[in-house]
Amino acid sequence: IGGEFFARFLPPGTEILLPDPTWGNHIPIFANAGLVVKRYRYYSRKTNALDLNGMLEDLKGAKEGSVVLLHACAHNPTGCDPSMEQWKQISDLIFEKKLNVFFDSAYQGFASGNAEADASALRLFVKEGHSLALAQSFAKNFGLYGERCGTLSFVCPKGEAQTSTVLSQLKLIIRPMYSSPPIHGSSIVKTVLADEALRAQYYTECEFMANRIGDMRTTLVEKLKEAGSSHDWSHVTSQIGMFAFTGMNADMCTQLTEEHAIYLTKDGRISLAGLNPGNLEYVAKAVHAVTDGKSITA
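RESULT FIELD:
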């Protein structure tokens, strides 16, 4: 819906800048909406870390009025988020370049375990005066994957008249697209968040899940060292969220699957939520077996 909105009300040929890498489905979603998809540098495989300089350079070269998509927290697939100081630099440049901001928030509460902390970047951009859109998913953080439940929000700094105009146009887009959304998933989210006791329980459980995933992240690196790996895996512990962007290449990933029955995406992203104390040692030994003597940086 957000992509359709921007494509309809921004000039023909408007570009949307997506991080490289990003969630794979971002590319066809925005291309099919009619936006021109471009990429900006985000993650360096040479350092297994955020490429802030490359990101800022690419955003600086963007055309005025372009849309820039940002992951609000727990960047997918890398798990590498800017610090708040870095977010401030990004915000200042985007404001200077008069770019349209589109946040994607799919893991709020599953990054740090604190839903408020995970919204820090978004709140900074609002405070800085950006007019922005936010696509938010409750698939993961509410366990509603099959319901495809989420929200699309717009910050309209020009007041009620602008808000009414945007809302009316969104309704015109939605009506022929899907008419009305399914009610079950949204009713679950509304029930939980509107009830003080349920909301407190939900936040506690989110924190528990995030902490467990964090423990798996730390223990995986410890087990890799115990297995004899001499690689620097500190990028795994510095990442955040459900995934670890390991640095393994496609051949290593294929070997992990074919020889050790460990399944992961070919870009080296593993789901930490699938790890537990019973399989960590096995996974660590297998990762060591396919990476020993080979580089995990580009």
